[in-house]
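Worked example

This section walks through a single chain of length 509. The input is the sequence exactly as stored; nothing has been trimmed or padded.
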Amino acid sequence: MEGILFTDQYQLTMAQLYYRAGLHERTVQFDHFFRRYPDYDSHQAGYCISAGLEWLLEWMQEAYFCAEDIDYLRSQRDSVGKPLFADDFLSWLAKDGNFNGITLRAVPEGRVIHPNTPLTVVEGPLAMAQILETSLLAHINYQTLIATKASRMWESGRGRPILEFGLRRAQERGANAGARAALIGGASFTSNVGVSRAMGLPPKGTHAHSMVQLFMAMGLGELAAFQAFADVYPDDCLLLVDTVDTLQSGVPHAIKVFEELRRKGHEPVGIRLDSGDLAYLSIQAAKLLNTAGFPNTQIVLSGDLDELVIWQIITQISQEAPRYGLDADHLINRLVYGVGTRLITSWGEPALGGVYKLVAVRQDNQWNSAIKISESPAKTPNPGRKQLLRLYDARGKATADLLTLEDETINPSEPIVLRHPSDHAKSRTLRSNTVTESEPLLQEIMHEGKMVYTLPSLEEIRARRIADVEALDPGIRRLVNPHIYHVSLSQRLWDLKQDLIETAMLQTQ
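Given that input, the structure is written out below as tokens.
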């Protein structure tokens, strides 16, 4: 299920059609991009975070048509009982059905990305480039979706630690990809042990409500449950205090255990709140902990958190904590957020909607641009072989992502015309020297099946994400109704697109 047959049936039937027409080895280019940011109904994203590339590359390097795959394809029949796939095509798949001829350019993981710009560019033999589509979309779309959600949570929480707790709420093995993407996008750690090992991080967790329930059912009580946990994990003691009564029972019992730990030379980690008014409970729990001499212990919040809920909690604490004699900023800096369902499922927007479109075909030693026309102009892809540039202004802020033809050169000392990708009436001109830097975003990752790119570490990916997000204007980073970031076409690319649309329309007459 996870080999090269991790694809859609129509990719294989199209590959056989190309083989039968003698086009299977024709060199082509496909662009992978998404058309709009995630919209979570009550709040919206103004940027996305690229993720999933490394796992796609691992799959590509291992995927080929083995004997069992060929036998399965040979067993398939069409609607009248004839073999669906011919023996000569299957023989070709068995011999050449791999990605050795594929050249891949991509925006590296952790980068801020925007709609209608290529995240991945695939160049190579038509049949295998077609077969690659489904797996590429599956690997990158989902991880990008989750990394984006995690980045928004990290920003909303003012950079405080995010713990990813979604393994039990995810769609089966998607939990692994989601946990990895969350770590790229802003989560500090995950409870997923296997992914933690793969990413070189310690897994994180607390304890179960069931432990407290067990001790209570045995007549031993909540305090005994907490003490048992502290006895086994004296230097990692973080207690879940809301099984019975958070403020009347849980926190006072936790304090008794913490005092005993300190007498024995250990320092407690903190408490976890999983239900109720988390802002109010954080304030009241902090008061109790401060009075008992534990002003710096962590307060971990969990329970259907997302970026908007985290923002609301912080806002409430900022307003109410001073009324109770607390330093709001100090309390906010003690908070840690355990996020599960709403991160791992990208609650409110379950799919990115990335697409994979043919944009160029090589014929007679030259590249011909390809176009697909949609009744909705916004869905007409940008054709041809392109480069993707990020333009920065004098403040070091990203001011636009610009798609140009691959042989174009942008001269910041001259005015730069930016055309809207689909609206004829919208354009703007950047004055001379407005742009202080023009950064190419696409990097060659794989050349004819061979890796030519050094995969960055998780720390490097995270650092790149933070720098990219900080380079965005605050309006684009807003949680609700973010400002629109400019994605534009150069005049030459705009002209090419209009010429191709006009030519295609004439051919239909």
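What to look for: DSSP finds 17 helices and 21 strands in the chain.
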